[in-house]
Hints:
Helices cover 27% and strands 19% of the residues. It contains 7 helices and 10 strands. The longest helix is centred in the N-terminal third of the chain and has 23 residues, at 32-54. By secondary structure, the chain is an alpha/beta fold. Strand 9, helix 7 and strand 10 (253-259) form a beta-alpha-beta unit. Helix 1 packs across helix 2 and helix 2 packs parallel to helix 4. 41% of the residues are buried. The model is unreliable at 1-8 and 16-20 (pLDDT under 50). The radius of gyration is 17 Å and the shape is globular. The strands form 2 sheets. The protein has a 7-stranded mixed sheet with strand order 1-2-10-9-6-3-4, covered by helices on one side. The chain has a 3-stranded antiparallel sheet with strand order 5-8-7. The structure holds 6-phosphogluconic acid. The site of 6-phosphogluconic acid (6PG) has 15 residues, from strand 5.
Amino acid sequence: MIELSLPNYPRNYEPHFKSFKIAEMIKIYSNLDYLNQFAAEKFIQIGTKAIEKSGKFTVALAGGSTPKSLYQLLTTDKFCSQIDWSKVFFFFGDERNVLPNREESNFRMVYENLLKPLRIAEDQIFRWQTELEDVEKIAADYEEKIKVFFDLKENEFPRFDLILLGIGDDGHTASLFPLTEALDETKKIAVANWVEKLNTNRLTFSFTTINNASNIVFLVVDAAKAEVLREIIKGDFEPEKFPAQNIKLKHGNLLWLIDEKAAQNL
Length: 266
Ligand code: 6PG
């Protein structure tokens, strides 16, 4: 049942999952501004703790349109001085198979709205090198970069302090789309993924990488996501159809930040 709280403040929603528990916490906000305020505070809180603990903050960012306003908010006076950005290392949970200067590039969206305004140094940014053209090479190159950065041994996976995710209206997350091969990947950190319905290759973290994170925050807004969100959170467990259902942390916090419109069917 939904505990009603003050308007504009997050309502905690403890869903009665039919067959599985995918989220410790689901917070519902009256609009994107309030959601972003909380998300920015969460970003700073997780980052500050990570820097205190290990001297750095590793974050894998989401692409698409939803997180753009959050990235912009993080560059405002209210937030930009709340963390030592020189200790933040930026990765991308997925990428489109386009050059970094193309409109569709997740890197370009993040660069323009977060990295450039904050003047983040190049050696703190780890993007998919899509100029390598061959998607298998791009994925292998990115996997190698991550292994070196996290100093991983064979069969080890990185533990990102935070991974931001969105969901598509078909239930995909990152570029793990329904009925695609990457859904079954358990050995690799980063893979290429042919997406028939888009008639294109995408690049994405595997579930194993994502589910090894210390914190995951989903950002989901707009009525267009209401039906798929109901399926993901309250429907039967069908991760082939709704890949976002496969996001479940072994050790860490999973948080869904949702606006009222997206939550209307919960
Ligand atoms: C991408 C994203 C993708 C995104 C969802 C939601 O490359 O598009 O990584 O997983 O999070 O498609 O996108 P919107 O925020 O644009 O609805």
